[in-house]
Amino acid sequence: MKSEWIALSNTSIAIFIAFANYNMIIIALPQIFNSLRFNPTAPDALGYLIWLILGYMVVTSSLVVTFGRISDLKGRAKLYSLGFLIFAISSGLLSTVNGYGDSAVLEMIILRLFQGVGGGLLMVNSAAILTDYFPKNELGKALGLNQVSGLVGGVAGLIIGGVLSVINWRYIFLLDFVVGIIGTLWSFKSLRDVQKPIKQPLDIIGNILFALGITLLLISVTYGLLPYHNQQLGWGNPFVITGLIISFLTIGMFVFVERKVKNPMFDLSLFKIRDFSVANFTNFIASMARQGILLMMLVLLQGIWLPLHGVPYSQTPFWAGLYLIPNTLGFAALGPISGILSDRYGSKVLTSLGLFISALGFFLLSLLPYDFQLWQFFAISFLMGAGMGLFSSPNMADIMASVPVQKRGAASGMRASLQNTASAISVALYFSVVITGMAATLNSSIESALSSYGIHLNVNLPAAVAIFSALLGYDPLSSLASSLPTSVASHIDTPAFFITAIAPSFISGFRLMLNISAALLVLSGILSLVRKGVRVGEMGNRVERTQKAEKAPAD
Predict the structure, then answer these.
(1) What is the reported pTM?
(2) Where does this protein have coiled-coil stretches (predicted)?
């Protein structure tokens, strides 16, 4: 097997398991909480829940730029293998978590943060390694196949997690451990640094300021989802406000330092390259839309549509994964094709068309009722995946091919950091908009549903508790049933009652977020047309030969 295809297969395994891992945990959360005797509907439980979901993203977003720069200095293949090893060790430790309640979940959160370190090393180096191994006229195809493996891993994670969690949730992390060990040994044996590591000092001050600023930003954003006093969200919490202010000041100091130091970690001069800056901006917007909508579609399927159609909560994770397969098929069908076409004909039209198609899918999804026809959901989901597939691989190839070879690690780190930050922010943003939309009508809707059975109560259920309860298969209204006559309790203590009570409120906030996202994708598609797009066929080969010729005298 040629060396470039060995690199592609190894990095594709890494991306597959990294994306699968994230969704396997989301699917397995009910079984994990039951095993650890943790009540996710308790007043202080939302913080643990949010950190278990988002902690991995916070770590990768904060460290990938630093990891990219270190990889330029020390060698990408070595750091990539180290990432696999860290991922394997942390996964093995996660499978052994014992104890109960808050302490056990806190232990899992800490190990998930450690796992994020390994994931960050894999994420930042996979694209850079492929860019080193493949010529520019084949880079779009390689990155397209690599990205397809990630998206397939994401949906496969829903299915694998649904199956393994029914048997034993610890098998999820044992699977991660086995794959991690295999990946470590294979990458250490087969991958070599094509480009020589550069010899430059590490920008220590810049690294510290960036990591601190991004970490504070994402911590503040995640805590903004928690209820504060009598408010549905925590954006008025002094802790959140202070954290946001300090994070913006720290990021501002980071930008100032990076403009002054000789060898910056976040090379702002790269944004002078039109293709690099435009492709990163559009990727940021697409990442915000993609991650947020995936989680909301899971809530819609797992928490509302499937239980409403008689599927037991124990089976909803598995079926939700199956029902998202059309989205994966859309991405898988168009991702490699768009990469190949962009290698030959350029990327401008493809990336813009992909964003426009995705925007159309978002808009069409906003027109569906919560009790939709399944074929409509499948068709729209496929359309959204096809649009993202058409956009993603040419866009990433343009990012990586537009920068000098000695800055590929840093460029990949900048891309991954912006993408991960967008993904984490999108989760908070989607939840915030949906929770805000639900808050106005949620309690009155529940009270109206109860009054139809002669029960007149003032309900004070936070929208965040309602939406996470739906996702995890819990019914916070079931506690009312014990104090009611059997004839009434039999109607109240059912998934259908809770779902019917909250679904109208959820879908109103969901539609608002879809329309906002569609508008942003259209604007990004228009902006994408201004890139130069020089990575085309023989043009790409000439650019690569020119760079090698310029580099030769220095060697």
Answers:
(1) 0.76
(2) none
